[in-house]
């Protein structure tokens, strides 16, 4: 079984796997439209994590993990809790295209997608509003800023040819907000 990750699974799968491949799926775009009150946020300050939005002509890069034998049941049980129970995600099968040109045909992979029907779905917002929400959110897996920056770093390092305007616009907005927060805190300490 192959499992496609496009958010925190790209750097922290949390399950054993036999091999991994960087690549993409078509027909979906990655969006910070899913709320998170456990891993990267709380009930009072939900974090923002990514989900996939069906979009003709779009492409989302990530990592596919191959799980075999006993790894299958263990990984699916783990992901069911992490993504479905705690995250509000549903599963779908997608065609994964490995980055390696010699890999041959696309691979059928399982992917977790949060839909607008789940109670944690936040939907669209401006890049500035998403960045502002990310700055103040933190959960049991760490700060929401780490999630955003690790995902942006993954894209730069493993998929430099790929475009993800949504992700990089939010990162840019976050970086522009941080210095003003630092200066505001500094001036508050002086008074």
UniProtKB/TrEMBL annotation:
Any single Gene Ontology cellular-component annotation: cytosol
Residues of the signal peptide: none
Cellular localisation: Cytoplasm, Cytosol; Golgi apparatus, trans-Golgi network
A molecular-function term among this protein's GO annotations: gamma-glutamylcyclotransferase activity
Coiled coil: none
Gene3D superfamilies registered for this protein in UniProt: Gamma-glutamyl cyclotransferase-like
Pfam families: ChaC
EC code(s) of this entry: 4.3.2.7
Family classification: Belongs to the gamma-glutamylcyclotransferase family. ChaC subfamily.
Function (record text): Catalyzes the cleavage of glutathione into 5-oxo-L-proline and a Cys-Gly dipeptide. Acts specifically on glutathione, but not on other gamma-glutamyl peptides. Glutathione depletion is an important factor for apoptosis initiation and execution. Acts as a pro-apoptotic component of the unfolded protein response pathway by mediating the pro-apoptotic effects of the ATF4-ATF3-DDIT3/CHOP cascade.
Protein name: Gamma-glutamylcyclotransferase
Protein source organism: Nothocercus julius
Organism lineage: Eukaryota, Metazoa, Chordata, Craniata, Vertebrata
